[in-house]
Amino acid sequence: MLSAMAVTAADPSGLFGILKESMATGRTLLDPKADPTSNELIKAVVTEFESGEGRQAVRSQVQSRLRVAVTDMKGKSMAALREVSALLDSKAPGDAAGFKSWLHHIAENAAEATSEGGFMGFGGTQVSDAEKATLAELSSALGIRA
Hints:
Elements: H1 2-10, H2 14-30, H3 40-50, H4 52-65, H5 73-91, H6 93-112, H7 129-142
Helix pairs in contact: 1-5, 1-6, 1-7, 2-6, 3-4, 5-6, 5-7, 6-7
């Protein structure tokens, strides 16, 4: 969720844009369950996220990390993702690359969910320059190539 939130915070696109990006995030979070090529760590996270307790734990963790102004949400998300990256590298090196790619994929889908800079859904660009920069920063934070 933090990877998608970082992209959304980079260039907020109004209520409908945020809703579209949130829905894209939710779908992308659960996609690996049906993908036989997903690694076991991703599948375990998806299974945990599907439970009410798991969602509440995620919500609580995100809220505790992001008790800041929206303007600092991107920075806090990136800092947390750097911690996640280091933890994956040390605790699950075999699954780390796939998991990091999944986190980046979630952010990409959030960025592509709505056009930026248009009017009432018309015009604008699919992924804004701010979102592109955030995706690049996310790749760096995770230690992967975009």
